[in-house]
Amino acid sequence: MADGGASSFIMLVTALLVSGSVSAILITQWGDAIRTVQTQDRAATAIDSTDVDFAGDPAMVLWNSANDTMVLHFVNTGEVALDSSLYEVIVDGESPASTTERVLPSGTDWEPGFLLQVFATNSSWSFSTGDDVSIFFVGVSERVGGFSHSATTNVEVRLNVI
């Protein structure tokens, strides 16, 4: 009987040591899972606060036929700064041959509420006054919490030749 009690006690101690080790591993894994969820929540919050929209009158977009340049304005309607040099403009399904941009009014940082003025040029475009063209724009946010997010807008505009 004494022999059975000692072996039961040894088994009990062994089981407690194993369960303690497993508990420590599970607690560590649970902490890692919580950190991952918190990181994803921060990223989702930044996604919701990244937005861009077309600015100005879509019926009066300037088209300079002399140098094949279209002047477009986009406003940062989100809550985070957007990268003023990392964007893409598509005009009627074509990328312009070249683009230049400037931020209004600051000149450099495309903060919320600021405008990005884009001069899109392509010598193969042959638009005239009153032409309707489709504009697609995608911009990228500055890094927020280690993440960058994109914002898009699309609009059909009417060109006004100058």
Coarse structural class: alpha+beta
Query: Average pLDDT across residues?
Result: 86
Q: What do we call the CATH topology of the largest domain?
A: Immunoglobulin-like
Strand tally, please? 8
Q: What amount of the residues lies in strands?
A: 35-45%
Structure characterization notes:
Helices cover 29% and strands 38% of the residues. It is an alpha+beta fold and 162 residues long. It has two domains: 1-48; 52-161, Sandwich (Immunoglobulin-like). Strands 1, 2, 3, 4, 5, 6, 7 and 8 form an eight-stranded mixed β-sheet that branches. β7 (132-141) and β8 (150-161) form a beta hairpin. The N and C termini lie far apart (106 Å). The mean pLDDT is 86.
Q: How does the SSE layout of this entry go?
A:
Blueprint: H1 2-48, E1 52-54, E2 61-64, E3 69-76, E4 82-91, E5 98-104, E6 115-121, E7 132-141, E8 150-161
Parallel strand pairs: 2-8
Antiparallel strand pairs: 1-3, 2-3, 3-6, 4-7, 5-6, 7-8
